[in-house]
Amino acid sequence: SIIFEEYARTHFRAELLLASTGMIWSILPLVLIAGVIRKKIQNRKQLKVWKGEEELIDPDSVILSVVEGKESNK
Fold it and tell me: For residue 62, how many other CB atoms are within 10 A of its CB?
């Protein structure tokens, strides 16, 4: 039994790795999709910050956009 345990420790590690690769390939797309969604959310937040800073720097452009009817609905 001790001999088999030593044999199993040395020879069956590759099989565990091969069996787990299916799990890796199934989880990897989920991680990728979550990353894309997270990045989109961060980009939207950053865009809102930039628009707020732009309004603070040049308030006349906001007035002009309202007069011209180009104000974006929030």
Answer: 14
